[in-house]
Amino acid sequence: MSSSKFKKMPKNAVGSANQHWMWRQPSSIALCAVCTLIFSGAIQGQSVRGVIRDNKAKTVPFAEVVVERGGQADRVSANYGGEYVSSAHLGGGQVRVSVTAKGFEPASVEATLPVATPSCTANFILFKKGKSGSSPTGVLACDDPTPYSDMLAFQSDLAGSNGELITSQPGQAMGINSHFQPGGPTITSGFLFGNYYFQTKPPTPRTLVVRAGSAPTGSSWSISNNALTLRSVSVQEARIDFPQDGEAILTLQNEGKTLLRVHLVAQTFQDVWQVKAFRVTETDKIIDEDGRVSK
After folding, report:
1. Are 117 and 90 in contact (CB under 8 A)?
2. Rounded to the nearest 10 degrees, how much is the dihedral formed by the CA atoms of 248, 214, 111, 108?
3. What pTM value is reported for the model?
4. Which helix (H) or strand (E) element contains residue 81?
5. At residue 33, what are phi and psi to the nearest 5 degrees?
6. Residue 170: left if φ>0, alpha if ψ -120 to 50, beta else—which one?
7. From CA 151, how far away is CA 281, in angstroms rounded?
């Protein structure tokens, strides 16, 4: 792979207004008319997606796409409409996206990405076999890494539900589900752009489970409101009991570094108990799935 470097994109460069990095494709990569790798803040997390077309703007169905990074490769196939999605975790470093399709010249694009680069879209335009001709230089562009993209993601649930409540998890936009427990309350759960909420009807406070599966050994949990009960099951999991309603900041740290801050809000209404959990900055601003501070 080439050791191409990024440089700041001028304001009048091609791309969306929030794209700030530009990498020019070497002329040696000449088998795709346009190869763009646009890094967006989409809710899909660090996935790679795009559309593959021929040089007459027609989509190319069932092309094979390989996303390589750090010696690992994720292979996916485009659908009938030429669209593909790869779950490859970008992070940073050298990334290469290659496309092959029956009857077309292969195409590839690669770059060295900044650490914590957000999700990307890699669109390709392919030439028919033997008709590569001259190819204009493609442009690879990416957003600045988001300020909180290295903060751990988390999953949440109510104790005893074994993950049955949430229908969507990080990497998906939203999900809502209801679960009826015989002889117990009806529980409604929701996941919306990285934020969790649970409701029990009639009001029945339950233990909230917060998991950060990639927390390193030696990490520890703490809570800002001593009126709530924190039970740390492991470095990856904390459980919070709610003897009373209230707000608290649940923090996971390792060697003095904050890995995760979760704002908890428990409230009882006339016929419903509700608890919400969402990531926040040091100044308690909500952080979305891609590490951006919500406006």
Report:
1. yes
2. -120
3. 0.53
4. none
5. -65, -45
6. beta
7. 9
d(CA 53, CA 33): 10
Place of tokens 């790798």: 37
**Residues near 113 by beta carbon (within 8 Å), at least 6 away in sequence:** 6, 39, 90, 91, 92, 93, 94, 95, 142
Amino acid at 94: Q
* Phi, psi torsion values for 186, nearest 5 degrees: -85, 125
- The pair of three-digit structure tokens given for residue 59, joined into one six-digit string: 């989509």
Q: What is the Cα–Cα distance from 116 to 90, expressed in whole angstroms?
A: 8
Residue 225 dihedral angles phi and psi, to the nearest 5°: -115, 110
Beta carbons within 10 angstroms of residue 130's beta carbon:
7
112-152: per-residue pLDDT in tens?
A: 877 667 677 788 988 888 776 555 334 455 556 667 777 88
User: Partners of 28 in the beta sheet?
Assistant: none
Cα separation, 238 vs 133, in Å, equals: 59
8 A C-beta contact, residue 114 and residue 6: yes
Cα-only R_g, the chain? 23
- What whole-number distance in Å separates Cα of residue 182 and Cα of residue 216? 39
Instruction: Report pLDDT for 290.
Output: 65
**288 token code pair:** 């979305």
- Cα–Cα distance measured from residue 221 to residue 231, given in angstroms and rounded to the nearest whole number: 9
> Are 209 and 157 within 8 A, CB to CB?
yes
Distance from C-alpha of 101 to C-alpha of 285, rounded to nearest angstrom: 46
